[in-house]
Design goal:
single chain; alpha/beta; Rossmann fold; seven-stranded mixed beta sheet; six-stranded mixed beta sheet; 14 helices; 13 strands; 15% strand; binds NADPH dihydro-nicotinamide-adenine-dinucleotide phosphate; binds 2-oxoglutaric acid
């Protein structure tokens, strides 16, 4: 298939709008409904100052976008990354709405970001940035309003600092304001693994649908953080052969299979590339490996019109948000590649965040088995609903997932009298 590279946009906000149009075309919706969905309802842009360890003052910029709150409060992570942009945060908030919709959570979508590189901050500086950002957005978020969570380069510890800042400002302990917290202050068992675990549930279901055996199925995983590292471990435990993994500095590849436990230990103490010079591979080459399963688990726009034709995986499971552009989606579909879209594949994270929030509101906590049992049921039911709708309309899984969510959000907007 020939695709004009010149025409392809890599702006995530425009991409999210294109995806809405693609699904809306099947739904016969009034124009004003898509118009509402194609932009966030509210966006907050903040700047705040932080004293650095050397005594200087640095000014940071951050955003929080709330896409749609017809179904319930908005929900979604906070990203700390040097390349955060307002359009990226807006797109991520839109994807959160469709994610919550497809797995049936009583939330709309939200997302936040701070332009910073936490890898260059000391622990003290990171804490001051985290607390200052929460202070700047405190009136915009809340347990019944907008509930943040972790995303790229944010951690349970950061969620803990943010929850503490919010609670101090409001004068009441408010664990429900944020999820992904450390267990001791109201985190949920299973939240740390939830994104990867949910993704693996959908991969196992897709392998079954494609009549591919799990044992020895080959997998390449891009990104070795919360989503990628745990997905590699869980896939390996399920019997798959992980042949390649990577982080921001590059990857390693062994067609005979990698020792994920050893790589994890290397990552904690030095670098995954210490696995061996001869195994080193670039992030770009990892994506093009001839594997059964490819898991992009890092950032957006890694599968584009430029490389889509060279993707050889049978299943692409989007643990990351927005790794595949619409042009690339068309190429992958034409090649018969199953793309499990981000809004479904990585919805395990927000699903267990929802469980965490419910536990916080009840002040009653569940066992890990209970959390994972509910997660598996929800992920599989959602996967089946998306797959069946895609088959019914002869479309791809992303469009079907959006159709399910858009219908739910439109019904909520109608029930509230907004449309
Ligand atoms: N955490 C969650 O609950 C959820 C996360 N997601 C999505 O999953 C993706 C990853 O998030 P998460 O795992 O939480 O983030 P983490 O911060 O835990 O990990 C990010 C990983 O991506 C790597 N990375 C960064 N830049 C690049 C790059 N250019 N090429 C290759 N790898 C890179 C990082 O490398 P290094 O280690 O070298 O820094 C790190 O290993 C994001 O798209 C996020 O939105 C989706 C749903 C929920
Ligand atoms: O856990 C959450 O609330 C949201 C996680 C997230 O940011 C995402 O799913 O992209």
């Amino acid at each position: 298939m020939t695709v004009s590279v010149m025409e392809e946009t890599l702006n995530p906000y425009q991409i999210a709008q294109q995806q809405i149009d693609a699904a809306a075309a099947y739904l016969n919706l009034p124009e004003h409904v898509t118009q509402i969905l194609k932009q966030p309802k509210r966006v907050l842009s903040v700047s705040f100052s932080v004293r650095m360890d050397d005594g200087s003052i640095r000014v940071f910029e951050g955003y929080r976008a709330q896409h749609n709150d017809a179904i319930g409060p908005t929900k979604g992570g906070i990203r700390f990354h040097p390349e955060v942009t307002l359009d990226e945060v807006k797109a991520l908030s839109m994807w959160m709405s469709f994610k919550c919709g497809v797995v049936g959570l009583p939330y709309g979508g939200g997302k936040g970001g701070v332009i910073c590189d936490p890898r260059e901050l000391s622990k003290g500086e990171l804490e001051r940035v985290s607390r200052a950002f929460m202070e700047a957005i405190a009136d915009f978020v809340g347990p019944d309003k907008d509930i943040p969570a972790p995303d790229v380069y944010t951690t349970p510890q950061i969620m803990g600092w943010m929850m503490d800042t919010y609670s101090r400002l409001k004068g009441v302990n408010s664990p429900g304001v944020i999820t992904g917290k450390p267990l001791i202050i109201g985190g949920s068992k299973g939240r740390n693994e939830a994104t990867a675990q949910g993704c693996v549930y959908t991969i196992l279901a897709a392998l079954k649908d494609r009549q591919l055996p799990v044992q020895n199925a080959t997998a390449a995983v891009q990104g070795f953080g919360n989503a990628g590292r745990i997905a590699a471990r869980l896939l390996s435990e399920a019997g798959c052969r992980i042949v390649a993994v990577s982080d921001s500095k590059g990857g390693i590849y062994d067609p005979n299979g990698l020792d994920i436990e050893r790589i994890s230990a290397l990552k904690d103490h030095s670098s995954i590339r210490e696995y061996g010079e001869s195994f080193v591979i670039s992030n770009a080459a990892l994506l093009e490996l001839d594997v059964d399963i490819l898991v992009p688990a890092a950032l957006e726009n890694v599968i584009t019109a430029v490389n889509a034709d060279r993707i050889k995986a049978k299943i692409v499971a989007e643990a990351a948000n927005g790794p595949t552009t619409p042009e690339a989606d068309r190429v992958l579909a034409a090649k018969g590649i199953t793309v499990i879209p981000d809004v479904l594949a990585n919805a395990g994270g927000v699903t267990v965040s929802y469980f965490e929030w419910v536990q916080n509101l009840m002040n009653y906590y569940w066992s890990e088995a209970e959390v994972l049992g509910k997660l598996e049921t929800n992920m599989i039911q959602s996967y089946v609903a998306v797959r069946d709708l895609a088959q019914e309309h002869s479309t791809d899984l992303r469009t079907a997932a959006y159709m399910i969510s858009i219908k739910r959000i439109a019904a909520a907007m109608e029930a509230r009298g907004w449309i």
